[in-house]
Structure formats: C-alpha cells, structure tokens
Request: fold
Amino acid sequence: MHCKSQWLVFIISYLAYGNAQKNIGAICDDGGFVLEAAFTVAIESVSSEDDPYEAKVVRTTPGDVLEAHNAMCSVLEGNVFGVFAPTNEKALKHVQSISDFLEVPQILVDQSVAHNRNWSAINLYPNHVAYSQAFAEIIDNKGWEEFTIIYEGAELLPFFDAIFALQDLEAGNEVLMTVVQLPDGDDFRSHLQTIKKSGSLNYLVNCRRETIETFLLQAQQVGIMSDEHSYVIMNPDFQTIDLDPFKYGGSNITGVRFFDPSVEAIQNYVKSINAKVAELSEDQIPEAVTENGLTLSLALMYDAVMLYVAAVKAMALEDGSSVTCESGRGWAFGSTLLNNLKTVATWNIEEGYKETRVIIPAAEVEGSESMKGKHFIVLTALSAPYGMLKESPKKLEGNDRYEGFGIELIEELAKMNEFNYTFDIQADGVYGSLDKKTGKWNGMMEKVMDGRADFAITDLTITAARQKAVDFTSPFMNLGITILYKKPTKQPPDLFSFISPFSLEVWGWLAGAYVGVSLLLFLLGRIAPEEWQNPYPCIEEPETLDNQFTMANSFWFTLGSVLTQGSEIAPIAVSTRMAGSMWWFFTLIMVSSYTANLAAFLTVESKFYAIKSVQDLANNPYDITYGAKKGGATLGFFKESDNLLYQKMYQYMDEHPEYQTSTNDEGLARAKSTEENYAFLMESTSIEYMVERNCDVAQVGGLLDSKGYGIAMKKNSPFRQPMSESILQLQEEGKLTRMKDKWWKEKRGGGACADDDAGSAEAQPLVLANVGGVFIVLAAGSGLAVICAIFEMLVDLWVISHRENVSFIEELKAEIKFIISGSSDTKPVRHREPTGSGSGGSKKSKIEDEESHKEVENNLNAPTPSERSMSHHSRHTLHSRRQSNAVQMARMRKFSKATY
Ligand code: GLU
Reply:
C-alpha cells in the first residue's frame, strides 16, 4: 500500500513537473507587483523550448511571518530548484531557517542581510567590505579633512568599515569624523541643525532610497546646501532620485550607480517589467518603473536568475529539490549548487553579475592552495575510454554516473589539489573547432572559453589553434594520427610462391652474379695458360691447344653448381679454381638461405594487405573510402598540412562529408562493416583501445604526427600551473601508465584480442642486406682470380720469351690479341719446345729418353687407377668422372713435348 502510494506520487509529480520543466520559486513581499514582474521576466528570458523554466511565485504581506512560512512550504511543493527570498527581515529569517534545514538555496538581491548570511543563502548585493572601500576612496580623493557620517539604521553600519579606517593616527592621517544617526520618522531637521551648528561642511549619507529625497529637502530648508557644502550619498539607487530641485543650491552632491539606465537592454528590461506589472495587476492601476527608476535590486534580480539558471545547467541537474516542509530531509544537491554559485560568479560594473570564474592571481596563492575548497565544472564527452556511463543496476546520480580514464584522472587531481567538481557532459560530442568566417569556436572549446565550464577533459588534442584560445595543462597522453582498417585477409596460395624467399632485388643480383662469374670464367680460361690443353694426347707435338672454358661451358659450369648438380667441367689453373670455388661458396650460402626462407614461406600463412600505409590509402587502388571525425584535430591536421599527399587527402574528405563521422565509435563501426570498404583516420591511443576489443580491425601504418591530449581551461587560468604539476607528478609516479593499462587492457572487455596475433609473424623475403656479404666475398674472390690469371700468363710468357729468345712484349701483344679476339676455343701453337733442351712448365715437360717415352706410352694405354675403379664398380658418378678427366689431362700434359 505504502509502495503504491509512492508510485502514485511519483507519477503525479512526473505528470506535473516531469516534462523537463524546471521550477524556480520566489516569495515576493514588496506589497506590489514589481518584484514579481521582474522575476517572471527574468525567468522567461532564460527559458527555452528545449530547457523550459517556470516561475513559481507566492505573494505575501510584508512582515507577516506566518504567511511567509506558508508561502515557503507551498513554493517547495513545486519541486523547485531554489527560492528567491522575501525582503522583509523577519520573514526572511524564518524562511531562511526552513531553507537551511531542507538545504534548498535561497537567493537574495537586497542589502538588508548583508551582515547576516546564512549558509543556504547567497546574496548578490554588493558586499559591505568592497562597498565601504569604494566610498573610502571617493572621500580620500575629495581630500575631506572633516566630515559627518549620517546614517539611518544600525544595519548600515558595516558599510562604513573602511571609512572609519581612514582615521589612521599612526600614519598621521587625522580626519575629523562625526557620526549622526537619523531619528525614526521623517523629520530630521533638528539633527541637521545640530550638524550645521557643528560647522561640518561635508556629509557622507547612507539611508534608504525612500528617505533620500526628504533628507535633501530638509537639508536645503536648514540651510546646509550652499556651494560650500558637499554630499556623498551611498545609496546605490541614488540615480533614481530626481535631483532637479537641488540643482541650484550650489552644493556638490556625489552618488554612485551600478548600471547605465540609458543602455538599451536595461530600457527593454524596464519595459518588460512594466508590461508584466500591467498583466499581473489586471484591472488595478498598475505601478510602473520610470525610465530612470530601475533600482539595483530589480537589476540584480535579473542577473541573479541568469546566474542561478546557469549553475543549474552547468551541473546538469534535471530533477528539482523534491523536498517539502514535512519531508524532514534535505536536498542532496543543494549545497553543491550553492558551492558552485559561490565560486562561479563575478560582478563588474558594465556587465553586472556574470557567470565567470573569480580569478585569483596565481602569484597571490601558491600552487594547489589556489584550488583548495573550490568547486569546478568539469566538461567531458562520452568517448570511450576517457568518459563513459557507468553500468549499474542502481540509479546513479551526479558524478557517480561516469567512469573512465578522464574521470579517474580528475578524481586524482581533485584529491591532490583538494577541489570539488561536478561533471557536465558535452551531449553532441563536439570538441571544438574554429569557424574562420565568424571567428567563433564551438563545442567544448566554446564552453570553456565563455566560462560555462572550468575544465574540459576527454581525448582533447592540444593544437596550435586551440592553444591560442584556451590554456592546456601538460599533456597526459601522447599519440599520433594513423589508420584504422579491417585486418588483412588470408592470401590465396600463390602458384609462383617459390619466388618469394628472395626479394626481386636479390633475384636481380643473383642473375647478375651468374652472368658475371660465367663471363669471368670464360675470360680466365683464356688468360690462364694451364687451361690450354693438348686435345690429342697421343700427338706429341700438337698444332693447336684446346680450352674447356668455352662460353657455353662457362655458363654450364656455373649453372650446374648453382643448381647443385655439378657439370663435367673442372677448372685446372689456380685462377679458374679460385673463381670456381668462390662461386661454389656463394651458391652454398644462397641455396641454403633460399631453402630456409622457402620453408618459412610455406609454413607461415600469408596475408593480403589492401593498404599498408597512408600513401596506399591516398592512391586508393582498391576503392577504399576514408574519413575522420568531423571538426576534430585529425581532420584539422590534414587541412592545415602543407604536404601534397595530405592536402590531396583533405580535399577528398572535404568533398565527401558523408565519410566524416560524429564520433570515433561511428568511425569504428564503419571500418568494421562488411557493407562498406572504409578506413578511418584516427588517433593512435583510441585505435589501441578499439583493437583490444574489436579483433576484426587493426592499425595500419605508422604515425603521421606526434601530439598530446591536455585538460583545457580558460586562457590565463591560475589553475593551469597546479594541474600541470599534478599531472607530471602522476606521470613520474607511474600512475598514469597504470591507469592507462587498466582502462585500455583490463576494463570493459580489454585483452579480448590478445591471442589473436600470436604466431602471426609474417615471413619476409630476403633482401640484399641479408645476403649482401656473400656477394662481396664472390666479387673479392673473382678479383683475386683475375690477378692470379694475369700473373700465371705473365710468368708463362716470360719463360717462353727467354727460352725462344723472342721479345716478351711481342709475345704479350700476340697473346692479348688472341684473348681479346675471343674467336676460337682452339689456339695454334706458336713455338715448339726444342727436343732435349731447357726446362718446361707443367704442361711443357719434355721426354728425357726413349725409355721413359715408352713407359709413358704404356702407361697411357693402360687404364688409369680411376678408370680401373670405374670399371670395377661401374660407378659413373659425375665426381669420379671429373677426377678421371683431370688425371688423364695431367698425364697428357706430361706426354706433350710441345709448347706454344
Ligand atoms: N582528439 C580529437 C580532437 O581533439 C578528436 C578525434 C580526432 O579528430 O581524431 O579533436
């Protein structure tokens, strides 16, 4: 039953107030309609269709405490967000005690309680300390050495504090002050006469607005309004007095005003009040505010409504106090709202009360002390994982509703600097960009700049343009722009995958080395004398010699070894053997490397990358559409860049606004979607967060730039220094890293793709850097072989020229001519070795005697040991054949008598 009735109350109150309309109460006891009209006009001007406000006004008889009590209770029934208090002091005190108990803020715009501020009350009337200082300065300026203070009620005495302090005997300031209190009633003449008799010529007057005119009139009557008398009137409504009757007395009358009544906005306000008064008073004769008749209280009423509603909006309060005189419990947000109001308002003469921060110069208050006890509005956006809505079965309220990296960072900073805060959410998720045409910022930046928020924290990038408009703390995270795209797909098996182990460059070098070494062998064969052999060993003195390294054989020899098959050819000279063995070494390394890498290619799954870098994206071979967050720093980077590639990309994105997204989440969804072939340009930290949870997307390519996220605040804010210091401290303590790990890798499904990439290392083709060394060894070996061959040739020619007694140069010329001609693999023998004479090289041995000749001949006809072994084992391996060939050649050499 109890439960049901609660539901009923809830439904009724929802129907009554739940249409997002917010009520603000007022108890008007001015005995007329002017205050109510001013209040209603102000409420109407802050109300909008999206965010409607309504005035809940109860009119009471001035000074009737019971009526005030009932009025307060009935205003509270309206689920109000705050109450504008009555002006009568007794009624006010009573209403305030209810307010204090129920924690519903009271807003005052009157001086009567300047010395009696309750905690639930906030008074916009100028503070007496500042007020008295202003007048002390006026008096000081006038150089008054004597004056009479004339005041009406004891409540006005605090307004003289700074004036009494003008009498500073120690400093040698002797000012003669006389204090006179005006009597009750409206006849002050006897007091004025006493003042006149005292000889005082200067008067500082503080009395109610209603008294001023009577006072001045009676002063005139008493005769203290001649040109030797001066008046300073302290009442802020002095401007509403008609001074015409006193113009000609000659005395100087000075007053102050808080606004210029001729300003159009003020005149419109006066007109609206008068119109509203006429509406409210219906057929009664309406009172009207004259053109100059706007009092400070009426003006403050407007500013107070503005300020109060701004605070309610800033705290994003949706539900009113929902307390009643009987409920016996307080409103949970009352004190926060009040705190908020006390720290967010400034007042200046031109603009009246304005919702801006009280800037305490940083020099005055050291470091974090400047933030202590203050309340700040912290603007954030729902962008994972910086700010997110908490998932909870319970209905959460206030700051409890949010969690995330940014939220936790603010919590830490608040603990370190001892400040309070309320989170406000940037509902549209716009961080802020400058409209160059209007020169205006939007989004979070705008709110920070115009003071609707003290701090903005999210993945808000520090950019040069933004830095000009607001202040940023030291960055709490570093990042760069990169690409979010679908993970590479599996590559279909490639028919020509056997090419993959070497890069094309290495294949090219390999082919070059093959041709080069083959040609070299051909050349060495021609140079090296030992490679020229007698083709017919039985002919003792051959006409010609043969060379096995013909062009075709040279290519065949190298190919045989690179394919690990060998050939019939075996080099004989030192130089050709050297070149041959270098080539074998080279092929050994290359073939092993190829085999090893081929194994890797066959076992590792190869992947298809549609794009690998931003260049690929810009060239767009696979029709991939791409974009970035609208108005974000990423898009800004492409816009401002002078790199031609980035300019081209910006042009594309600018021409296709449909590819720009409102949030990072939208970008992710589009990148994942199978219906779209979309790549999202995004910041690396946000990509890291997403790829931890979305295993079908990955970061593509490296970072295009390097920048950071910071907390934004108003330009020249004194809080930048302490906040930056605290961020650096958190960084040094490693807390920021721990927080990042927590929000990136652990919370909300982090680490879901951790195993996904294990073992997905790709096989890479070997590039020249991997195998370059072996090419160098080959080149060096080949060089050495060339030197060797030349040396062999020179020695041989030198021996012949001596033996035959011919010119060495002539021999050399003839030899070189033959080598260069390259025409034939057969070489005519130019000089025969004379029988029985001289010595010979290895292939120019001579036959010493007939016996030995015969023996050799027999030997030649008999099978060689290897030939025997071949016939025995019938094994015709290439190797043994090569061996037998070499042995036979050696024997033939021994037999030959001829030299060429
Ligand atoms: N961090 C960006 C900004 O501050 C939003 C995301 C983006 O542009 O990639 O505007």
In short: The chain has six domains: 7-125+295-346, 128-254, 366-479+708-747, 497-604+767-828, 608-705, 839-899. The chain is about 45% helix and 15% strand.
